[in-house]
Amino acid sequence: MDHEVIVIGGGPGGYVCAIRCAQLGLRTALVEKAALGGTCLNWGCIPTKALYSATKLIDRASTAHEMGIAYASPTVDLARLAEWKSQVVTTLVEGIATLLDKNGVELHVAEGRLDGPGRVALSTGETMSAGRIVLASGSSPIEIPGFSFDDPRVWSSDDALALTEIPDRLVVIGGGVIGLEIASIYNRLGSSVTVLELLPEILSVVDLDRRTIAALKRFLKQQGIDVRTETAAQSIETENGEASVRTADEASIPADRVLLAVGRRSNTAGLGLETVGIEPNRRGFLPVDGALRCSAEGVYAIGDLAPGPMLAHKASAEGLALAEGFANGRMRPIDYEGIPQAIFTDPEIASAGLSERAAKEAGREVLVSRFPYAVLGKALGMREPDGFFQVVADASDHRLLGVQIIGADASELISEAAVAIENHLPVEAIADAIHPHPTLPEGLKEAAEGALGRAIHVVNR
Known about the structure:
single chain, alpha/beta, FAD/NAD(P)-binding domain, Enolase-like, domain 1, seven-stranded mixed sheet, 32% helix, globular
């Protein structure tokens, strides 16, 4: 055969898998039709977080007078901001291309599809063969009736992150991670933002406790973001040149632009699945076993094609584990329960492991402790007193089951918890470790101490 491994899709799962396969001595080809790095790098995670960081400066500048430091009112050069964001993306894409080359991965810029057992057909007319084919083609935004991306008034997340304009009124349909992150960015840029969520609660697909969600909704309201749950968006209407979103309860919400962020669907169309007898399940994922094998011999699926959370680091972990399994004959298991997640709202939310609710539903007796940011000297010095750390541990053996953090830099703070959960450590591992003072990670230590009934800076309960 031409290759030992062919990977279709150059996103965070595909390119990582290809590089690791090549490092382990496997003849590897990567097929990518658009841009290396996939949605995450080009139109998702990286541009969102770059803009989150940039727009945070607007908020800080506008409130610096509270510390006795005054700035002129911030102004936004949208074209320059868009150019800077694109430079960040371009630098990272070029870095991936260099890594592929240096590691000996054969890159094909083309669309790839299965062409029967062991074969991949490219849009260039070429056909390749391999004993193992990894499908890593990612996902795309979903449309709903009444709202089409063909309508110039309707934005996908790609459109919103292109930064072509700052609408006076932005209606976000979907209170999930993508919708809320972009809502936060445009609220800082000056848009009046309304979020419509069909379900009874925002972030419904993330395992977060009610206290965390309630805190986020309170903070979003304080920032002027109007969040409406149990609200079904039905259509866009135009009257006297003014557009509005009509809801099922007959409300009419003025909208200069509408961001449709109701979820994503696996990119399975055009992969040639029918040529090897693979069928997506009812949710659109490709069924896989514990070794990420599809029903067809020699075909594997990772990332957004495989069941589980649609997270870039989940895709990368699967790509690495799969490559090592190819080379060593046994794939190390992935702890999906412990995969951390970071949500870039204001304030940030990060979690790893089980929520209090999920742990109790699993029949566990738990120890739960929370420690507020408002008690941390570092948080007060940063003018970031909002939020808390939450620790959930097993009452019988004190094993750390889950951590939730809502507050400044939560995304940077969750990794300590993820390591502890992944390694089945007791909560004492964090409580007994000496943390530098004054820092934000002290909050996690204090929450761990509280779970053991030995809190110092809050009252034990």
